[in-house]
Amino acid sequence: MFEKLKQKLKRVVERISQKAAEAPAEVLPAPPEAPLEALPAPPKAPEVLPPTKPKVLRRIVTRITRRELSPADVEDVIWELQVGLLESDVAVPVADRIIERSKELITGKKLGLTEDPRELAEGALQQAIREVLTTEKKVDLLELVKAKRARGEPAVLVFLGINGHGKTTTVAKLAKYLADRGFKLVLAAADTFRAAGIEQLEIHAERLGLDVVKQKRGADAAAVAYDAIAHAKARGFDVVLVDTAGRMQTDVNLMDEMRKIVRVAKPDLKIFVGDALTGNDAVEQASTFDQAVGIDGSILCKMDADARGGAALSITYVTGKPILFLGTGQHYEDLVEFKPELLLQAIFAESPAER
Ligand SMILES: Nc1nc2c(ncn2[C@@H]2O[C@H](COP(=O)(O)OP(=O)(O)OP(=O)(O)O)[C@@H](O)[C@H]2O)c(=O)[nH]1
Ligand SMILES: [Mg+2]
Predict the structure, then answer these.
(1) How far apart are CA 230 and CA 156, in angstroms?
(2) What residues flank ligand 1, with Cβ below 6 Å?
(3) What phi and psi, each to the nearest 5 degrees, are found at residue 242?
(4) E strands along 166-258, which residues?
(5) Ligand nearest the Cα atom of residue 306
(6) Among 73-82, 170-179, 315-324, 331-340, which is the least confidently predicted range?
(7) Which of 160, 174, 301, 335 maximizes ligand 1 atoms within 8 Å of its Cβ, making it the mutation to test the pocket?
(8) Which residue among 162, 163, 169, 257 has the greatest number of ligand 1 atoms within 8 angstroms of its CB, and so is best to mutate?
């Protein structure tokens, strides 16, 4: 993951530190000469030397040796960053934001001679990327489920997205994740549209030993979700996971069906499931689904196969909604709770060959 971006960021850090090394050190101006007649009488030589004032001295030393990168220095280097971000399929507004923030954080920072400009540059890039991966509104799935359980209600999660991007697999992975943590749950086979959509979910339910609520193919998907919620309430279950049909944002009927599912099920979370391999498309799709029903967060699948990482870097900033999990493979356990630091580590960690 992030192969291209990693190389570019490394070069950016290198070049910024070169620039910092070339930047002229700041030199203290000479004190203004006092007019002759105003010269005070020379002080009497003290009998004992006054104690040195290390703080003052240190301040003078650092003032003399401080270097600073100008906006021009950074501008010269930043296009490398821009190329790296765009080649990695980072969405344009996100790339712009990362670049602006990096510039802000790097320029005007004063560096003492002993400070490592590499650390300054890398710290600034990390901070800029961390910011686009962080949302004000957080979603804590386990807390949400526990809070609903305390109220005696099941938490309802609806999974939405384009055909084949990983919804059903993610429902199964998340079902295992929640079951492993002691929650009782039911799956709703609300993909009544695609042939074998119901069977696919049933196979997962059987393997995981879970209940699945279904109707016939072609049935009203919202009714299936409704039944599953009733099933969970009747049995005191904690969570309902609603799998839905894949749909293109251009398919008016299926988009209407999705709105109906949301109206009827009143989910606690509407989760967009995207395919990281589709890069910028996944980000645009998430925005369209957000406009249609207001998503609460995303899960990005197929991160294991994604060399560029652009969708993962962009989707939070563009939608303003957090990534909840990353799908990292085709097994039930290939689901990772998302934290911005995870991606930062993946981007900035040195590969074993570099160490
Ligand atoms: N490598 C990898 N493959 C995944 C991941 N998540 C899902 N897949 C695969 O992607 C394919 C499609 O997954 P599904 O879960 O059927 O996708 P869907 O969104 O439910 O598809 P529709 O029901 O047709 O809309 C399957 O072959 C999955 O095994 C992942 O994180 N990594
Ligand atoms: Mg499916």
Answers:
(1) 11
(2) 161, 163-169, 191, 194, 197, 246, 301-302, 304-305, 327-330, 334
(3) -100, 110
(4) 185-190, 211-213, 239-244
(5) 1
(6) 73-82
(7) 301
(8) 169
Would you state the structure tokens that stand for residue 303, as one six-digit string? Answer: 């991160």
**Residue 347 to residue 341: CA distance in whole angstroms:** 10
Partners of residue 185 on adjacent β-strands:
239
Is CATH 3.50.50.60 the classification given to domain 141-338?
no
Element (H, E) at 104: helix 92-106
CA-CA distance, 205 to 335, in Å (whole number)? 17
Measure the N-to-C terminal CA separation of the chain; round to a whole number of Å.
Answer: 18
141 in helix, strand or coil?
A: helix
Q: How many CB atoms lie within 10 A of CB 137?
A: 9
In the chain, CATH 3.40.50.300 covers: 141-338
Under 8 Å between Cβ of 168 and 243: yes
Is the model more confident about 239 or about 306?
A: 239
* Interval 220-241: pLDDT, tens: 999 999 999 999 999 999 999 9
Where residue 37 falls (left for φ over 0; alpha for ψ -120 to 50; beta otherwise) is alpha
| Helices and strands counted in the chain (H then E) | 13, 10
CATH topology of domain 3-29+52-132: Four Helix Bundle (Hemerythrin (Met), subunit A) (1.20.120)
Calculate how far, in angstroms, residue 160's C-alpha sits from the geometric centre of ligand 2.
Answer: 10
Q: What is the DSSP string of 294-323?
A: ---EEEEE-GGG-SS-HHHHHHHHHHS--E
